[in-house]
Amino acid sequence: MATFLYKLGRLAFRRRHFVALIWVALLTLAGVGAASAPSAGSTSFSIPGTEAQKAFDLLEQRFPGASADGGTGRIVFKAPEGEKMTDAANKATVAKTVKELGDGSEVVSVTDPFTTNAVSKDGTVAYTSVKYEAPGMELKDSTREALEKAGDEARATGLTVDIGGDALQAAAEPGAAGEIIGIALAAVVLVITLGSLVAAGLPLLTAIIGVGIGVSTITALANALDLGDTTSTLALMIGLAVGIDYALFIVSRYRGELAEGRDREEAAGRATGTAGSAVVFAGLTVVIALAGLSVVGVPMLTKMGLAAAGTVVVAVLIALTMVPALLGYAGRKVRPAGEKRKAKKTKAPEGQAKPGLGVRWASFVIRRPAAVLLLGVLGLGAIAVPATQLELGLPDDGSQPTSTTQRRAYDLLSEGFGPGFNGPLMIVVDAKNSADPKAAATTVADGIKDLKDVVTVTPATFNKAGDTAMITVIPDSKPSSTQTEDLVHAIRDQSTDVKADTDANVLVTGTTAMNIDFSQKLTDALVPYLALVVGLAFLLLIVVFRSILVPLKAALGFLLSVLAALGAVVAVFQWGWLSGLIGVEETGPIMSMMPIFMVGVVFGLAMDYEVFLVTRMREAYVHGESPSQAIVTGFRHSSRVVVAAAIIMMAVFGGFISSSESMIKMIGFGLAIAVFFDAFVVRMAIVPAVLALLGKKAWWLPKWLDRALPNVDVEGEGLRTLDDDKDDKKDEDRELVRV
Question: Does the reported pTM lie above 0.85?
Answer without folding.
Answer: no
